[in-house]
Hints:
- The protein is an alpha+beta fold.
- It has six helices and seven strands, in the order H-H-E-H-H-E-E-H-E-E-E-H-E.
- The strands form two sheets. Strands 2-3-1-6-7 form a five-stranded mixed sheet, with helices on both faces. Strands 4-5 form a two-stranded antiparallel sheet.
- Helix 3 (54-61) packs across helix 4 (63-80).
- The N and C termini lie far apart (48 Å).
Amino acid sequence: xxKARIDAERRLKNMAMTDVLTGVPNRRAFIExxxxxxxxxxxRSVAILDIDHFKRVNDTxxxxxxxxxxxxxxxxxARSIRSDDMVARLxxxxxALILNSESKDKxxxxxEALRQELEQSQVTxxxxxxxxxxxxxxxxxxxxxxxxxxxEQAVLDHTDKALYEAKKSGRNRVVWGx
Length: 178
């Protein structure tokens, strides 16, 4: 295979695995990484988070402002992770994080610090200050739980339920699934 073709295929794969708006990996890349981690094993925490009352942002400030908030969140998430972690945009205002080789307590501290940081931040758009909060559903996966072939679906189900519980119990919080 010639170098030009290899480079073109690499660019196409990168485009297929990257969210256009934010530049972070997309849902497809997240699922692929979960499958890889299942094979590899190891303790980790997975979190799904989204912006609370995001429709209000779009309705009040417009969709371009909503995009600015989504980009701000993606940038904040990307800054908060380590090189062996992952952030991905699942769609809309929903993101996922994989925090590798950490205890549940340490992961909770990181997620809570991120939640608090975002609660204090503001996005400036067309001279308007837009504040927002996030809700986080998380799941800790111990090293001995990593071998399941259906782990990525179980993770998505459990973190989604935890996210729903965070929303139901008042938003702007971290809730752990079981």
